[in-house]
Amino acid sequence: MTACHSELLQLKNLGMASVNILRAIGINTHADLKRMGAVEAYRRIRARDINVSKVMLYALQGALMDVHWNDLPSDLKTRLVFEAELPENGSGFNQATA
Questions:
Q1: Residues 58 and 85: beta-carbon distance below 8 Å
Q2: Full domain range(s) for residue 41
Q3: Would you tell me how many other CB atoms lie within 10 Å of the CB of residue 3?
Q4: Digit-coded pLDDT (tens) for 1-10
Q5: pTM for this model (two decimals)
Q6: 3-state secondary structure of 60
Q7: How do residues 36-51 score in pLDDT, each as one tens digit?
Q8: What proportions of the chain, in percent to the nearest 5, are helix, strand and coil?
Q9: CA-CA distances (angstroms) from residue 80 to 28, 45, 54, 59, 83?
Q10: Is 30 among the domain residues?
Q11: CATH value at residue 86
């Protein structure tokens, strides 16, 4: 296991399968995930035809906020899904700081 794997595995909600998916879209560190944000990472995962559910979106946001994905407030989950479904240029919600 590389140091990058180890760093991502330390984040809440992320297991080896999630880390491998993140690496496939160019996210190798916590800083990479923070820079890209949960919504954009989720969009890129989906764009690669990787079959993930909305839970992946919640898990990524939870990893950024250091909370279990199921503990995210329902209004935040709703905003994340809304943002993820917007056309790419319609983005205005900064999920990294929500």
A1: no
A2: 3-91
A3: 9
A4: 555 568 999 9
A5: 0.85
A6: helix
A7: 999 999 999 999 999 9
A8: 65, 0, 35
A9: 22, 15, 9, 11, 5
A10: yes
A11: 1.10.150.20
